[in-house]
């Protein structure tokens, strides 16, 4: 199976075009007001409007009031929700949409328990735990914390870039990889060449998997 790719934290129409032209499977929009990559509804609408068919659109929220999630869903064609905070399962499933639950990885995290607790999620997105910052940090975590036999798709995230994504795929064998900082020239400003290099790194790993 080819490794799916999500490019997250887009704030500009041209970056959505660069991601889709490079072959990204999904793009993510950050609806977390404290993020430098935060987008409002109108900005999000403009970005989503240029996407071709079959690119999954993901809305990222961090401990958001339910009303804010509902407002985004009512206004925008979002395919999938990404909950990047401490949202409990009942909250995540209350919107009646497919969702990914984020686990911020550090020693002691039990992913088997997370998978059981969020059994109706479409997968677990694994990001690095950084005190005081919920995500988009550009930090990696120790991939050996991920067990091999989890019962749901894993989206690997946290400090990925064109140079390390091949090793990440060969070691973890995730369903998908997710990148934000690693394809940027500044926070929220993506770079078409970095996106293309990241996609190439994924494709190279897919054709030369570890033995
Ligand atoms: O991008 C942000 O600013 C952000 C804010 C709050 C929660 C998550 C955020 N980003 C997501 O974090 C992961 C890892 O990002 P990175 O590649 O390490 O920069 C990814 O899903 C981002 O979209």
Task: Please name the defining characteristics of this protein.
7 helices, 31% helix, alpha/beta, 10 strands, two-stranded antiparallel ribbon, binds ligand LGQLAAA5, 211 residues, TIM Barrel, eight-stranded parallel β-barrel
How would you portray this structure in words?
There is one protein chain. The chain has a single domain (about 5-205), classed as TIM Barrel. Strand 3 (about 55-60), helix 3 (about 65-75) and strand 4 form a beta-alpha-beta unit. It has 7 helices and 10 strands. The strands form 2 sheets. An 8-stranded parallel β-barrel has the order 1-2-3-4-5-6-7-8, surrounded by 4 helices. The protein starts with a strand and ends with a helix. The protein is an alpha/beta fold and about 210 residues long. The longest helix has 16 residues, at about 190-205. Helix content is about 30%, strand content about 20%. The ligand O=C(O)c1ccccc1N[C@@H]1O[C@H](COP(=O)(O)O)[C@@H](O)[C@H]1O binds near residues 28, 32, 62 and 134.
């Amino acid at each position: 199976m080819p490794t799916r790719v999500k490019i997250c934290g887009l704030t500009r129409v041209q970056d959505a075009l660069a991601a889709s032209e490079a072959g990204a499977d999904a793009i993510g929009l950050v609806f977390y007001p404290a993020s430098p990559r935060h987008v409002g509804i109108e900005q999000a609408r403009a970005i989503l409007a240029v996407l071709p068919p079959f690119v999954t659109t993901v809305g990222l929220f961090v401990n958001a009031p339910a009303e804010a999630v509902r407002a985004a869903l009512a206004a925008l064609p979002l395919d999938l929700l990404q909950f990047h905070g401490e949202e409990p399962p009942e909250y995540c499933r209350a919107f009646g949409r497919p969702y990914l639950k984020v686990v911020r990885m550090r020693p002691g995290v039990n992913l088997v328990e997370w998978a059981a607790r969020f059994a109706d999620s479409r997968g677990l997105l694994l990001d690095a735990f950084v005190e005081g910052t919920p995500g988009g940090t550009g930090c990696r975590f120790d991939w050996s914390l991920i067990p091999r036999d989890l019962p749901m798709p894993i989206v690997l995230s946290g400090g990925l870039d064109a140079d390390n994504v091949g090793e990440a795929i060969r070691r973890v064998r995730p369903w998908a990889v997710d990148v934000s900082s690693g394809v940027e020239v500044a926070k929220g400003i993506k770079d078409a060449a970095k996106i293309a290099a990241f996609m190439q790194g994924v494709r190279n790993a897919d054709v030369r998997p570890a033995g």
